[in-house]
Amino acid sequence: MIIYSKITEIFCLVDEFCKEYDQIVDKHLLGNPSKRPPVMSKSEVITITILFQLSGFRTFKHFYIYYVQKHMQDNFPATVSYNRFTELMQQNLMPMTLFLKTCCLGDCTGISFVDSTPVRVCKPKRIRSNKVFKGIATTVLVNLLWDGFMVLNYISL
């Protein structure tokens, strides 16, 4: 499914970035660092997250439980439970975002994709009184018909 040399190459790139990131961030941290090191490193968490995007799995949960924990034990010997891994993903969101932005992002071709998952900002009753994104944001009504077709109705605020 995923070539072993590609996994190693991605991990090496991520690991080098994480070492530089830790050197810079550790200077500016407040308080005492944790005495107990995490079971999985930042590099491992970010690498697994990137590998999910390269795999053909539809959900991250199935990828992690049925592929990483079962078939990638040689590459990642100290895997944690799925719930703990999602917590580690949240903790490593900033370094992963910076890595992808600085090291992996190519030039924009003019074609972009947007996820169609709706994000509820506020309750429908309070839409008119919300002034945070006044003049910028619009609301979208999505109607699913019986046939499974989707109709989008745009309403400007």
**Global Rg:** 21 Å
Task: Give the helix/strand class.
Answer: mainly alpha
- How many distinct helices? 5
Low-confidence stretches: 144-157
Task: Tell me about the largest β-sheet.
Answer: 2 strands, antiparallel
Tell me the distance between the termini: 47 Å
The overall pLDDT, averaged over residues, is 78
SSE succession:
HHHHHEE
Q: How many structural domains are formed by the residues?
A: 2
Broad shape: globular
Task: Describe what this molecule looks like in 3D.
By secondary structure, the protein is mostly helical. Helices cover 46% and strands 9% of the residues. The chain is globular, with a radius of gyration of 21 Å. Mean pLDDT is 78; it is low at 144-157.
Task: Write a compact overview of the structure shown.
This protein has 157 residues and is mainly alpha-helical.
Draw up the topology in text.
Blueprint: H1 4-28, H2 42-54, H3 60-71, H4 82-91, H5 93-104, E1 138-144, E2 150-156
Antiparallel strand pairs: 1-2
Features:
46% helix, mainly alpha, 157 residues, disordered C terminus, 2 domains
